[in-house]
Amino acid sequence: MSPDLPLRGLADDLSTRSDEALVELLIVRPDLASPPPRGTGVLAQRALSAASIALAGESIDLLGDAVLEAFLDAAAEIGERKELLGPVSRDDIVERLGKRALRAEIDVRLDFLLARGLLWGTGPLKRGKHTHWLGGAHLPAALPWRAHNLLGPMSQLSAETIRERIDAADDRQRELLTTLAKGSALGRSRDAAPDANPEAPVPQLITRGLLARVDEQTVELPPQVAQLLRDQPPLETASLRAPSLATTSPGRFDAKTVDAAGAGEALELLRHADDLIEALGSAPAAILRSGGIGIRELRRLAKTTGQSVTRVGLLVELLAQNRLLGSGTPDSDSLDLMPDNVFAPTDAVDAWAHQDSTRRWLGLARAWLDLPRRPWQIGDTDREGNTLAALSSELFDATAISGRRQILDPLSEAAPAHPVTLDALTSVLVWRHPRQLRRFTLHVVSETVREARELGLTAHGSLTSVGRALLATDTDDDAPAAVVEAMNRSLPNLIDYFLVQADLTVMVPGPLEPSTADRLRLLADLESGGAASVFRITEDSIRRALDTGLGSAELSSFLEDHSRTPMPQSLTYLIDDVARKHGQLRVGLASSFIRCDDTATLAEVLRTDAATDLALRALAPTVAVSAAPLREVIDRLREAGFAPAGEDSAGALIDLRSRGARVRSHAHSGTPAARRSALGPGQAAAVVSRMRTADRAASPVTTAASGTPSGETVTMLIQLALRTGRRLRIGYVDAHGAASRHVVQARSLAAGQLIASEEGTDDDLRFPLHRLTLVEVL
């Protein structure tokens, strides 16, 4: 039993803390600073509220919860005193936790709780610290459960023993346990009372420790039991020490190999993003009435790009978050049907495509970290059985951003190239965040890590150097040098050569320089991507290159200059043959005209079915016109076996490639992430300064200036403050009769008004002298 000690409140404790300690309190509990409290008394009232205490409980780990349970258990023996709990000594807490935790670790948790204003000291100091602590009446709100599960019968049992007790339960008892494991851990039952029928299922489960009694009508499923019933990694509470995160020996791959694997995934992500942008530019996706893109459209895009639906869903979310995809009316002449609202690439895509690989990847990686949805849930069903669509509001989760970082943060603590298993990572997460026990499941952790791997942040079970740098970077830094440097170091060196094969394929043994890659993609079609890509040259791909104004000599020269293997003769013949036929027919923009120097060729065109479909009319032996648009005339003539080329009004060849549909890029219109704003040290210091001013203004008057001062006395005191630079404490009654006190710095005295600035601000305030009830020089 603790001795009789002063029962001082939290307000008294906060008033004696240093400014640095109060700044730390406001930073770790930012909800206390909004709006800025007027004095430490108001701060204490907020800090003792149940809602604020529950919010502070999110940052308490399992050992911290055990210390709180031990404190509450010891305080229950004393009873509640004036809405205060305690005093409880350190020995009381250590005695209840026994050998399950080291005393040094318990002291660390006590200091943690003291710094957050959940506990405060009382009584004499020993070695500069209090030996007894007090708490508020709402302190239990900081715990993730109602019962004292870390001190209960399950707390010192191993997972194997708990599993044996679960297996020994009969069907009815097992059904009750399963129901509580799937839903809320709390259950209501008349059999929860101590005097209930001992043969009923609930009393039997309480006797075996598989249920914890909260009160006479409420029971709770212990988290140790719930984890096993949900087939999750067990919550080990027999020892309250933090679980091990990774093995002490490195994995099969060294750090350089891990970084290289991550860089390879990053390049694949960019390639797939380009494919998806091209697919949506050619055929924009329809938008559901409820918003978002349905699973049917995702399957179509997956088939077009050769990717999985899961991969397409992730890319859609990332590109949309980066404002590279959006909804609107498309701007494209190549679409036969112009829908009112579709999902297509935005006009920002073209500028993004010309950035280097590192910058493009960085934008996607940051988009993923700041994404208020979980892309891996796309295609799942909600509680009503509806399929979750990409970009839909049903996917919005306010905890997605913080949860994603919480899952990855432990990986940054493991040594480079030391793999971490999913079971070990999940165990660490639930130990550090007991309130998120139901959220950090194996499925959630594994899917989040998989997405991180697809972005190149992790590889072979550990964080890459790029992932470590990105997680350590300030979110406000648009171009973090450490991340850019790490990615440039991990990416393979760019090459400017390839290998042309006799079967008209081009093998690229690494990432090409941008200019070389653009020309090769124009001349050949990609057959397989990856670290070593394979392209194939066909008649259509050669014609595509000729359409841009390139000649056969330029194409052959490009291949000869960059190929490490000799040019196959068959490829040279193919290029020359396609180029010879290309451009014999010229289609202009006069909606449209056909010009051909060879009269026999034009006469042959006019005899085909294409001429009838296009309503061609000969104006001269070498010229014909059509009412059809340019693109349609060229496509129809190519279907008929001809090889026309487009020309402008000057007779020069024009590039017939379509960049695809584009919509206007807008700012984010989706639901913003509901994250609590962080409080910086400067902001916290300003709030503390105002609280100190309010405390001084509310302190007892120590001079004879109290009461209603005369006009002469008021003027003399103000002039004294102006001459000496000392502060004034004034009492003031406004026009509505509301009285207040202020600590101000006098600026001037004129026209019956005191012009002064309140401490902590630079704004000038005006106080009519006849409304002053108190003037005191400090």
Q: How would you characterize the overall build of this protein?
A:
The chain is α+β, with helices and mostly antiparallel strands and 778 residues long. The protein has 30 helices and 25 strands. The protein has a 5-stranded mixed β-sheet with strand order 18-19-17-16-20. Strands 24-23-22-21-25 form a 5-stranded antiparallel β-sheet. A 4-stranded antiparallel β-sheet has the order 12-13-15-14. The relative contact order is 0.08.
Biggest sheet statistics: 5 strands, mixed
The DSSP helix count reads 30
SS-derived structural category: alpha+beta
Strand share of the residues?
Answer: 5-15%
| Rg computed from alpha carbons, rounded to a whole number of angstroms | 37 Å
Helical percentage: 40-55%
The average pLDDT score comes to: 86
Low-confidence stretches: 669-676, 703-707
Q: Roughly how many Å apart are the termini?
A: 46 Å
Shape: globular
E-strand count:
25
Could you give the order of strands across the largest sheet?
Answer: 18-19-17-16-20
Topology:
Layout lengths: L9 H7 L2 H10 L11 H8 L2 H7 L5 H17 L5 E6 H8 L5 H13 L3 E8 L2 E8 L22 H10 L2 H12 L3 E3 L12 H7 L4 E4 L2 E3 L2 H7 L25 H28 L2 E2 L8 H11 L3 H13 L3 E4 L13 E4 L3 H5 L3 H13 L30 H14 L8 H11 L9 H13 L3 E2 L2 E2 L1 H7 L9 H10 L8 E2 L4 E4 L5 H10 L1 E4 L4 E4 L2 H9 L4 H11 L6 H13 L4 E2 L5 E3 L3 H8 L2 H6 L2 E4 L2 E3 L4 H10 L5 E2 L34 H18 L12 H14 L3 E6 L5 E12 L2 E6 L5 E5 L3 E6 L1
Parallel strand pairs: 16-20
Antiparallel strand pairs: 1-3, 2-3, 4-6, 5-6, 7-9, 8-9, 10-11, 12-13, 13-15, 14-15, 16-17, 17-19, 18-19, 21-22, 21-25, 22-23, 23-24
Helix pairs in contact: 1-3, 2-29, 5-6, 8-11, 9-11, 12-14, 13-14, 14-16, 17-18, 20-21, 23-25, 24-25
